[in-house]
Amino acid sequence: MDVSHLLLTSVLFLLPFIAQVSAQQPGCSVSNNKPSVEENNPPGYNVTTIDLEAGFTASIDPSSSDASYFTIEGSQLQLVKSVDYETDTALIADVVCRDTSGQTNTLEIIVSITNLNDNSPVFKQTSLTITVPEDTKVNATIIPREDLSASDADLDIIYYELNSTVQDTTNYFAIKGINNPEIYLQKQLDYDKLNSTTLFLYARDRPVSRKEITHTATATINIIIEQADTKPPWFLPCSFIDGDTSICISSPYSGRVNISEMSKEPLTLDPGPIYAKDPDYTINEKIVYSIVGGNVDNTFSVDADTGNLTMNKAATSPDSYLLQVMAAQVNNKQKYSIVSVEIKVINKSDNAPYFEPSTYTGIVSVGAAPKSLVFQAEDPSSPLMIKAEDDDFPDKFNPNIEYYIKNSTNFVATRDGLILTNVNLLSPETVIMEAVAKDTVSLQEASTIIVVEIVFTATDKITSDKLYTAQDMGILGGILAALLLITLIFLGLMIYKHYGTTVKFLINKKFSKDFPESYENQAYNQDEHPDLSAKEQKSSENGGITELQQPSFFLSSSKEEIDGLPKTSTASTVVFDVEEKEEEENEEEEVKEDTKHEKEVKSILKTDRNEGDHGYKAVWFKTDVDPDAGEKVEVIKDNASDYDDDSDQDLQENEEEEDDKDDHHRGSGAAEVMINMSRTASQDSIIV
């Protein structure tokens, strides 16, 4: 063991030196004696460079196994043809170095071929067809892995993907994994929903997410679903539930027999004879019938093959029979269905109903709404009514008769025999239909013909452009409302323009009646209106009710407006508080002093002279001045505009003082007196 280990260690130690010796021979050498070349190279591809000493030449040994792949051009070792990794993974080039004396040395160069992704995956079968039973278990294998695996000459890992051109079929089938193409069933099959599909299996040598060059192979798989015997029989007619064709609910059957009478023929049932079928119609197993309940006294029997119901004996009781009939598959009794059959026992009907007239004629207008009456053609004011008679009844009226229209959906018949429209009739035409009268007890029927003329009436000839909808009426109403509003605004403006002054006067008048309180300077009122008696002034000072005569002049009103104003106004009664009484008395004394002072002022506007009074001064109009007055008369120059301005200013100051006094009266709770008058302008007191 120690010797062999030592020998192996020695060989590994000497291997680099041996490689160096093989890469370098006397006269020629290469830098790398193991170069690599990618497959699918073009002819003339340089593999490596041979370094030659002087006097030496290099050539390919023709006896070497791979000599046909190489050639030497100058000092370049070249490939003569393209190489394929899938054919050769490595090539050996034997280079012979020869000097001028004829001595030779051999230089061995090993060329490795690099594999490229230049091959696509390959399926064993590119097209498969397989049959899958409908009752195949979920998760069962449909196609095994070995039948679907693809190979790749580049020995790449294969990535698989399953898809389908038929919508919603990929939910039924799937592959085990991205690297495992085995197909299995992942959802229960239903032949009524899916009976065949086509799948496509893709094999790629690179994942889809990678951006490298990818080669793809496709296999087409045709799957045919084979119907299995999975459903029990269905009695017809039946109705599907919510569009699901795998479940169908049957309706019960019904029939009638005469009491104490045995029918030898198969009974007539409604909605039809007893019949069941295998819903697995591609299998269509044979079905047998039997009565499993409700057959009192074994009165009835059913044919096992046809399902026809017949009587074994007469019914002696008026009670109805409720039979239970079973339909089962011959090959599997566990697949069965049961339906109920009601047989009513009635008294015998000797006569079938009939119509006395064979044809009825009616008329209806175009555009008649559904459920409109059809009228008699001979008497358009009377509705059309059909009537079937029955000789089994004394008055020939059978209350068990119902009417229906057999071959037209545009009209219906009521239980009383009235004919009504069932749709909106849009065009004139002639409708011929069959009306049926059916005895709901004996199931006997009678029929007649009804001819209805659909015609235009006088009202139908009104053209469509003269008809207005509710929307049109609403638009018209909106326009009229807008016009009315504009008219009212215009009238209001005109009234305001022509009667605005009068309206404002009336409003002020009304306002003065509603709010009679006002505040006036008592001394000023007494001076301006000397016709007030001392008694009235005293009453006013004591807070009593005072009547003031209306002044006879208004600066801002016409004579007609003055005549319309009230002549007197009543002062409001004021209750004084004890705490305010002293303050009010002081104010009254001040008013008395002002009044006394004003009484002492004499008028200075005179047209005569009083020369006897040396302290007397008067103001005369310029036109009345005596030219002989001399220096005793001073003539004031005419400067009316300045005087007017001063007078206006004085007037404004006086009004502000009066307003302040009024505010003071309001705050102290003094008596409020309103006088409906207009104050005279102070500028008229002096005229120069």
Automatic annotation (TrEMBL):
It is found in: Membrane. Keywords: Calcium, Membrane, Repeat, Signal, Transmembrane, Transmembrane helix. Residues 563-609, 621-688 are annotated as: Disordered. One of its GO terms (cellular component) is catenin complex. The keyword Metal-binding does not apply. Residues 677-688 have a biased composition (Polar residues). It comes from the Eukaryota. Residues 577-592, 641-661 have a biased composition (Acidic residues). The chain crosses the membrane at residues 473-496. GO terms for biological process: adherens junction organization; calcium-dependent cell-cell adhesion via plasma membrane cell adhesion molecules; cell migration; cell morphogenesis; cell-cell adhesion mediated by cadherin; cell-cell junction assembly; homophilic cell adhesion via plasma membrane adhesion molecules. Residues 593-609, 623-640 have a biased composition (Basic and acidic residues). CDD domains: Cadherin_repeat (cd11304). GO terms for molecular function: beta-catenin binding; cadherin binding; calcium ion binding. Its main location: membrane. SUPFAM superfamilies: Cadherin-like (SSF49313). Pfam families: Cadherin. Residues 1-23 form the signal peptide. Residues 36-123, 124-235, 251-355 form the Cadherin domain. SMART domains: CA. This is Cadherin related family member 5. It comes from Anas zonorhyncha.
